[in-house]
Amino acid sequence: MQASTLAALKELALQCARSAGELSLKRMKEPFTVEYKTSASDLVTAVDKEVENHVIKMIQARFPDHGILGEESAHAEDYKQYDTLWIIDPIDGTTNFVHQQINFSVSIAVYHKGEGMVGAVYDPSRDELFYAVKGGGAFLNDRPLQVNRAVSLEQALLCTSVFWNKRAEQIGIDLIVKKLAGKVRGMRLLGSAALEMAYVAAGRLDGYVSMQLNAWDFGAARIIVEEAGGRVTTMMGTALPYDQKSSVMACNPTFYEELQHFLKSEQTDVPSQN
Ligand code: 2AM
Ligand code: CA
Ligand code: CA
Ligand code: CA
């Protein structure tokens, strides 16, 4: 890909992330409808849909020949015919958006032939924009990010997400996470996977594990973590897909093998949630 094309993709991705974040902050202060998607633990608001449409319009106005895969408008495999694909999550952490009014983010990624080119995760409440361009490093606002502290599993602050509701107990993840918690310095849960992964890039967390995420949850943050020098794979240590649901492990490389060893010994591959 030409440097000028990459620069144009970066510029638009960052613009979309900021604009979407500002729109959700504004709408958060007004009344909005909340619906259940699949259960009382799976919410979607009118703002999720509005923000996604807003981002789609921005992309289509500039790049009408690009594909778009977004959480609220994903239609089967329509996107597969495009070389350049935008993967977007308008609000990552909808439950936080509704309850906490903080700790949610917008995630915008651009992939070209399956390869991550640009990733942007924006936290509008704190005005923090995490981003990366392939081969160009990772940044928080304008500060370069580097995951380079030597950390053992015992010294690590880890984070996990998604199944902290009824389903955790049904599939026994509560026990695995409990065991993991006994091996590390501490565990945190923020409730926005994209933000949690971006925090690994920023060194605020040392590692992140999730049994199952969608492509729009990890699409942008994975590029940011990798560009910051972190390692991102599935929990089984295989390459992360770019357009499918997957387990995710993102961490400081110094304890990657140690964490892999633990996860493999616990047989953490779980059946699909849906
Ligand atoms: P969302 O808010 O965009 O739905 C919550 O712990 C995190 O998990 C959020 O990033 C949330 O994204 C994501 N999440 C919620 N339901 C999920 C599901 N069924 N599969 C994967 N990720 C999910
Ligand atoms: Ca959702
Ligand atoms: Ca999400
Ligand atoms: Ca979402």
Number of strands: 14
Report the uncertain regions: none
N- and C-termini, Cα separation: 36 Å
Structural classification:
alpha+beta
Percentage of residues in DSSP E strands = 25-35%
Reported by name, the CATH topology of the largest domain is Fructose-1,6-Bisphosphatase, Chain A, domain 1
**Fraction of residues in helix:** 25-40%
Q: How do the helices and strands follow one another from N- to C-terminus?
A: HEEHEEHEEEEEEHHEHEHEEH
CATH architecture of the largest domain: 2-Layer Sandwich
Largest sheet: 7 strands, mixed
Which distinct ligands sit in these coordinates?
adenosine-2'-monophosphate, calcium ion
| The CATH C-level class name of the largest domain | Alpha Beta
Please indicate the count of domains: 2
Rough outline: globular
On the 0 to 100 scale, the average pLDDT is 93
Quaternary state of the chains: single chain
Number of helices: 8
| Relevant CATH superfamily of the largest domain | Fructose-1,6-Bisphosphatase, subunit A, domain 1
Kindly report the spatial arrangement of strands forming the biggest sheet.
Answer: 3-4-5-6-7-8-9
Rg from alpha-carbon coordinates? 18 Å
